[in-house]
Design goal:
2 copies of one chain form a homodimer. By secondary structure, chain A is an alpha+beta fold. Chain A contains 15 helices and 19 strands. In chain A, the strands form 4 sheets. The first copy, chain A, has a 9-stranded mixed β-sheet with strand order 1-5-6-12-11-10-7-9-8. Chain A has a 5-stranded mixed β-sheet with strand order 15-14-16-17-18, sandwiched between helices. In chain A, strands 2-4 form a two-stranded antiparallel sheet. In chain A, strand 16 and strand 17 form a beta hairpin.
């Protein structure tokens, strides 16, 4: 029997799972404080929906019934074939169309769920991981200010976590689109795809590639000047864009929005946002603001919170549902927090008290004490075995349980300090800090 | 575009999701009060593990990479093929062997997760649903008292939910096994399988079937007398078993355990447990107590909480890990609670306050009020649009948000009573009952 791990499918030990739960709870709290409504969608979508934005670049797992396979049936792929969702945006698009009469727009939703990607195992990426998404979806229209709001909420959520400071890079697709128009570039998609690599490959390679696809030196130079712009100041942003000499209505609208985004986010969460004009978010169908977020000193992990604005997050016939949303890669964050570690759980079990058992005959008495403690909300467990007290204390210690209760003498012992005192099971309480396991953080 | 529902994959609307979250939170709280440790396992297991107890009767979904399928590759089924887990017991067995050095035994774990079964859609069953399991797993040995404990914890969890009273039926495999031995029945498995149908089909059919498989009239009669026994009294249970005339060491050990189970559970949670000697739990590899639980007046839903004791929940070479556990069918319960309904959410959104906006120019002022409220833990959202107050109040009403805040005059209005008063965003609080959405129950 091997280790039984399956590469790409992370699992945490109990004390690690408590840290993960803490992280998810913190994120959820910020989402709910901001009035986002939690939904959960099924794990599967039809291929028609999974591929609704054209063939997806994400690897999809399709499902087949084992019995059918054993009977030699291999179903043909069709639009109705079921696959596991690879993100939480595709399910939202489908859900919005399905429930457009059940919700009030703009609809503010959050969703924290696992997603699956059928990556090849050797690539070492997660194939199962948890994401935490917020999106605001309008019916026909959606105010720009929501693009500020979503970025703010995500920074607030990240600031609530035991991680170093997050820095958000923002851009606006209208600037890139406008610049391409002004420069007479038609192949906008392939340009976006190339620019998306700017952070990963040498810039010179990108510019060469673009020249090879037929862009003129003027076109390449225009893009180069524009995408070099990095600033957290709206004033400087305007000046630098002006200095490129590129100008059009779309470009100027994008510039206004990007400046408003910097100002709005800075007002709510100072010093964590930066205009970064080479940011494109590849081929996703964004039409306004785009976002990526990096953790200080852990930039090599890549963006841990990304997203943007779609003018057509969903559509139903001629009806469009614009949306803006971002997604936190929760599993990647948990992985980071655990490996550093930036946080640990004070114990691995919920139990604050281990109730000793004198003999199997008096187990009922120990159970009664446990019931009384639980009735007052104190998590506890009864010793698995009647044994010498020393042995039972060691059992509690191994489990990280701070208190042992002795029903025979009605005494409770703090096994860390050794202090033992008389106690009434209908009145005694552990100190607040020992009541439930707590997550202790080493950052901030 | 059809309704986009996929049969067997339930999804809840936001206000229903809040009820589901409430139910899961209640269950989790009882589990944690009883010192159970939460783990989460990956959604997939290998076929080797999924079929580790022989070919499973549960329908399994296997995964295939879409790109591979498109390239015409159809992977051969092998022991390493991945499939979605169909319960939380198989993952636990695998996890225990993998982490036997990372945990302290007896290991008390709970797990609340979705599972998938590749049922044929026409059968109208859930193909994706949530289960809530507790198991206690020993290393080599496991005290009988844990069989009492698990049943008690599950009744406590069910009693915390907005459902009618649950009744648990219990039996002990040693009684059935012992009776078969005494009666000289060799084909115990097929007998168990037949007896399992006693609640679903006419008893006469079952006895006929057994006679046809070669059982003698004496054997059938013996089983019949035994399996007719239903009682919540340990004394009566002993008498009735004695009256069957069947007797052996195993049978008597099973009887002792079943009596102890009735007594122990009754002591902790009075009046909800009953010995029900036709209960077999089919082919699952139970070796001691077995349990099923029904909801009063909703017995037709079948058992909503079942399980039992395994002497080999897991094994690693010659090392056995006995376990006892039960599983609540959370999705089925949520379905029941929503359809009656036994509970509803006070509102569909977390927001307690809708902050009005006078004009897009003063949106920053509204944002500031919202930030102040959130800093004190009050969930709120800012109006999507600057509009006449009447329109903004209607927007809050549509969303079920009880309060509207007017930053221009620093006033807050309870839109249900119409009462409007001056308020300071750094001090005002909503009444406790309006702070977060609450789940109001109509049972108990």
């Amino acid at each position: 029997m091997s280790s039984r791990k399956i590469s790409g499918f992370p699992e945490w030990l109990p004390e690690q799972r408590l840290v993960e739960t803490h992280i998810v709870d913190q994120i959820r709290r910020v989402f709910e404080l901001n009035g986002f409504i939690g939904i959960e969608t099924r794990a599967v979508e039809t291929l028609a929906d999974l591929e609704s934005k054209g063939e997806t670049s994400k690897e999809v797992y399709v499902l087949e019934r084992l019995q059918a396979r054993k009977e030699g049936q291999i179903s043909e792929l069709s639009s109705r074939t079921l696959g596991l969702h690879f993100d939480l945006t595709v399910p939202l698009s489908r859900w919005i169309v399905q429930h457009s009469n059940d919700v009030v727009f703009p609809f503010r939703r959050y969703q924290i769920q696992k997603v699956w990607r059928g990556e090849r195992p050797q690539e070492g990426r997660f194939r199962e991981f948890r994401q935490a998404d917020v999106d605001i979806v309008g019916n026909g229209e959606l105010g720009f200010h929501h693009e500020v709001e979503v970025a703010t909420v995500m920074l607030e959520a990240l600031n609530a976590l035991p991680i170093p400071r997050a820095r958000m890079r923002v851009n606006n697709r209208k600037i890139l689109q406008g610049a391409c128009e002004v420069l007479g570039i038609v192949s906008v998609e392939s340009v976006l795809r190339e620019l998306d690599k700017l952070d990963k490959e040498a810039a010179a390679t990108i510019w060469n590639n673009l020249a090879e696809t037929g862009l003129t030196p003027t076109q390449v130079e225009g893009l180069q000047k524009l995408t070099e712009i990095v600033t957290d100041s709206p004033t400087e942003l305007r000046q630098k864009i002006q200095a490129t000499g590129l100008s059009s209505e779309l470009l100027s609208q994008g510039t206004d929005e990007l400046c408003a985004l910097l100002e709005g986010v800075n007002q709510a969460v100072p010093g964590q946002v930066q205009a970064y004009l080479s940011l494109t978010r590849g081929l996703d169908y964004y039409t306004g603001s785009v976002y990526e977020t990096f953790i200080q000193n852990f930039e090599h992990l890549g963006s841990i919170c990304s997203g943007g604005r779609y003018d057509a997050l969903a559509r139903n016939g001629s009806r469009f549902y614009p949306g803006v949303g971002m997604s936190i890669g929760v599993s990647r964050l948990v992985s980071l927090v655990l490996s550093e570690p930036f946080a640990r759980s004070s114990r691995a079990t919920p139990s604050a008290v281990y109730v000793a058992v004198d003999s199997e005959e008096t187990r009922g008495e120990s159970n009664r004490v446990a019931r009384e403690l639980r009735q007052r909300g104190i998590p506890c467990e009864v010793s698995a075995k009647a044994a010498k007290y020393g042995k039972q204390i060691r059992a509690a210690e191994q489990r990280g349980i701070p208190f042992v209760w002795f029903p025979a003498t009605s005494e409770v012992k703090d096994i860390r300090s050794g202090v033992q005192q008389a106690a009434d099971a209908t009145k005694w309480c552990p100190p607040e800090s020992d009541w439930w396991p707590t997550v202790e953080t080493s950052t901030s």
